[in-house]
Amino acid sequence: MAATKARKRRSSYHHGDLSNALVRAAIDLISSENSEQITLREVSRRVGVNHRAVYRHFSDLTSLLAAVAEQGYGELLATLQHALATLPAGKGVPKLAARRMEALAIAYVGFAFDRPAHYRIMFGRRMNEDGRFPALEGAALKAYELLQSELDAGVATGEFKDRPRRELVFGFWSLTHGFASLALVRRIKLKRTFVEPYVRQIVGPFIAGL
Amino acid sequence: MAATKARKRRSSYHHGDLSNALVRAAIDLISSENSEQITLREVSRRVGVNHRAVYRHFSDLTSLLAAVAEQGYGELLATLQHALATLPAGKGVPKLAARRMEALAIAYVGFAFDRPAHYRIMFGRRMNEDGRFPALEGAALKAYELLQSELDAGVATGEFKDRPRRELVFGFWSLTHGFASLALVRRIKLKRTFVEPYVRQIVGPFIAGL
DNA sequence: ACCTGAACACCGTTCAAGT
DNA sequence: ACCTGAACACCGTTCAAGT
């Protein structure tokens, strides 16, 4: 049974598909409740190839994790964009920029709650310290730029004070990332259901100070 | 040479000293530039005992790491207290509470910069998720209470708005922890020298919103 | 009571080989 | 070009034994 499955699968890895299959398997692995850690050997087992085959497509485990993280940043960006798009507000609403920042914060923390293992890899030490993976840097930058353009908009309408943009973005990101991190290690105890009201209160002082 | 050293040391582990020696060795290990990871085997090697001896004092690797983390929370608390004690201000200074919160933020991030590996263990996943280690919870709580009493003081003088205290503390903690984390994984690039001015700008909006 | 030795089931990675 | 097998140097942990 298992052998047949592996054989069938393997036939499709002759056209550069293995690379994607490995990344998908790795994401599946950490998305399932029971398994938290990505190992090179477990991922290749799931795909049905010898673990050495991975090295044909990724120079090491860290490279594979970087691909997973890159995909994660893409998902995060989509989540944030979706949160803005579905915001009920129209124009002329008072404090629109503040409400948009709030929606971003809620969506950000929600993402970390929904994909904890993925989030941890994205912000883990392995691939972030050196700028080894340009595609990863690019994906992270896009999320950064989304935050920046929102803050820009708030400053443009005069709703936010005109402070150095970089510090505003990093401040907001630090706040949401810090909250998500503390919640994931359960230093802050919080059920998924209460993310929305809680985040609102947490970011309250920050947004009020913009 | 190495054998003599190990022998000499070992003679003192008959009175419950091994436990402390292991924790100290683990902290030494992560404090030295070259080594980032604590392994049970490396720690026991440094102390000069068989790696199995560790299990006499710690039920597993995680327990040893929890002891390291607990010590870290103690150091962090001392760092924060010291920052408040050496703050040049006297009474009657305007915005005293804000300046004290700022000093705490700077000291907090500075600690993470100075002891990165230690900080990572303190906020790592291994021992925080379940409340397995009451001593660790207690040490973390003391740091929490320091922040809370500062915010209380600010509210008492009317300098800060009277919001739910828990949200204020978690907000401040999220902000400083998030900034420290992002800096440690180099998503925020920052030299140790610039921690002070940078943190001041980052926490600016938050403190202004208190 | 406290420590050790050998063994087990895992890792990531290297070298040399198979098709 | 793409994948495999055997081997290496590491892990944490268990079992049974030494003093």
Concise synopsis of the structure shown:
2 copies of one chain form a homodimer. Helix content of chain A is 67%, strand content 0%.
What does the overall shape of chain A look like?
elongated
* Helical residue percent band of chain A: 55-70%
- Name the CATH superfamily classification of the largest domain in chain A: Tetracycline Repressor, domain 2
SS-based class of chain A? mainly alpha
What is this structure's SSE topology?
Two copies of one chain form a homodimer.
Chain A: H1 2-10, H2 17-31, H3 40-47, H4 61-85, H5 96-114, H6 116-122, H7 134-156, H8 165-184, H9 195-208
Chain A binds a DNA duplex (19 and 19 nucleotides) through residues 10, 13-14, 18, 39-41, 49-53, 55-56, 60-61.
Describe what this molecule looks like in 3D.
The structure is a homodimer of 210-residue chains. Chain A has helices at residues 2-10, 17-31, 40-47, 61-85, 96-114, 116-122, 134-156, 165-184, 195-208. The first copy, chain A, has 210 residues and is an all-alpha fold. In chain A, helix 5 runs antiparallel to helix 7 (134-156). Chain A is elongated and about 60 Å long. At the A-B interface, helix 8 and helix 9 of A face helix 8 and helix 9 of B. Chain A binds a DNA duplex (19 and 19 nucleotides) through loops.
Structure keywords:
homodimer; 210 residues; mainly alpha; Arc Repressor Mutant, subunit A; Tetracycline Repressor, domain 2; 2 domains; 9 helices; 67% helix; DNA-binding
